[in-house]
Amino acid sequence: MDIKLIDFQKHIDDRGSLIIAEYNKEIPFLVKRVYYIYGVSDDKKRGFHSHKNLKQINIGIAGSCKVMLTDGKEKTEVTPDNPAKGLYIGHNVWREIYDFSKDCVLLVLASEVYDETDYIRSYEEFLKSVF
Ligand code: TYD
User: Fold this and answer.
1) What is the 8-class DSSP label of residue 103?
2) Which residues are catalytic?
3) Atom 17 of ligand 1 has which residue's CA nearest to it?
4) How close is the Cα of 39 to the center of ligand 1, in Å?
5) Burial of 65 by CB count in 10 Å (0-12 exposed, 13-18 middle, 19+ buried)?
6) How far is CA 53 from the centre of its chain?
7) d(Cα 124, Cα 106) in Å, to the nearest integer?
8) 86: closest CA among 40, 30, 39, 22?
């Protein structure tokens, strides 16, 4: 499955923490879009799609949530709850996001501008596209 956890650069001292992610180091694509999700109640689920081309990095800036990822064969669950780590999600990965804490802020760095035609929003269609 085209996913990985990325450790960002950390500068931590008695003044607090400074975290850095740079193109060609921690971020393997040029960031064309940034968005963030917050204020999600714990009974709500998001995601439920894959992308044809877009790659992204999810960062749990505050709080936590859970991300289920599958390529149609393997399935795994990741908890982005550390602002110093990024969850890279590449092509052909179906994701579902749930169990948001009240204070969760999930930051997304995306390789493409918004394009609805890059989304696959039906799990059946996703399975057809990968097998
Ligand atoms: P949606 O894809 O449902 O979010 P999630 O994957 O987190 O569940 O997006 C919600 C709405 O926002 C939907 O109408 C599409 C729109 N949207 C944009 O217009 N631009 C964007 O960059 C994103 C991420 C979503």
Assistant:
1) T
2) 49
3) 114
4) 15
5) buried
6) 14
7) 27
8) 22
Per DSSP bridges, beta strands 75-78 and 105-110 are: unpaired
The SS3 of residue 124 is helix
Structure-token match 């969760």, residue found: 104
Question: Does the beta carbon of 108 lie inside 6 Å of ligand 1?
Answer: no
Q: Is the four-CA dihedral 102, 21, 51, 112 of positive or negative sign?
A: positive
Q: Is 36 in the pocket of ligand 1 (CB under 6 A)?
A: no
* Cα dist from 48 to 15, 19, 21, 113, whole Å: 39, 29, 27, 19
Residue (of 92, 113, 131, 118) closest to 31 by Cα position? 113
Residue type, 52: K
- pLDDT given at position 85: 98
Using a CB cutoff of 8 Å and minimum separation of 24, what contacts does 13-17 make?
Answer: 17/83, 17/84
pLDDT digits (tens, 9 = 90+) for 49-102: 999 999 999 999 999 999 999 999 999 999 999 999 999 999 999 999 999 999
